[in-house]
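@channel sequence for tomorrow's demo:
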Amino acid sequence: MKVKLLYVVLMLSLISCKRIDITSQSLESKILTSKTILFDQQIDGNMISRPVIIKTCAKIDNLKSYPIVIALHGRGGSNKNWVQPLSKFTNSGEFIGVYPQGHLNSWNLGQEPSNADDIAFISNVIDTLLSYSNVDENKIFAVGNSNGSGMVNMLGGVNKRLKAIAPIASQLTERTEIKSNAIPLSVFQVNGDQDLLIPIGGGMKLGHPFLSVSESAKKWASNFNCNKYVAVEEAEQSISHTYFDCDDNVVVKYLVLKGAGHNISRYYSSLWNDVWDFFSSLD
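structure tokens (generated this afternoon):
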């Protein structure tokens, strides 16, 4: 009898251990780490595989939920262009970097060579990210440069998941919609006052009717019912304008950099620090 009892106890112990191992393996498989994920999308009747580079710190804390920063390259660029500039943040575990590739090296704003449905593509990327246990669903941000900036503006206009966006070297166009059912999000728009490609004064450029940078910020602020008062702060290199008291406590800010052209990071070395400081400061 004692032998049988010992056998039962031993078997239960082994089953329990196996369950713990399976659970551990299952959890580990849902941890997002550095890799490239391919997303298939139908474009112009063809199935296209679009790569998304994921960059995390080397030692992931499995008990931590990490913020996500989705970064979109400019027209003619590559998702690989983001890896080095944001590496100090991803390597230190400040956030997980997510770098999608635009079809035909561009984002479809209506005048580009790509006919891809990029809003659906990015939505699919976010859905996939949220299936991992170490992603903070309340801290998903997007930053874009130039043509990628136009794309993050479009994403903000239909927002369901993003907490904030940072459009760099581009502003809203007259055609960019901000849907009435879009969830309010914070905006940090950055422009150079010497940008000749997309001037801060707006106008028709690259086939798009751009608003001025001030009109662009005002449009976000108006849609999110911000206080009409703009707080202005001038520094040696920049002038910042900020709208507060908006719906859902979001913040709308635009920064004009003195002497900066279209390639802002070349003129302003602390650009990515400022973007992350803005994102990470939000409640």
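heads up for whoever presents: Residues 1-28 have pLDDT under 50 and may be disordered.
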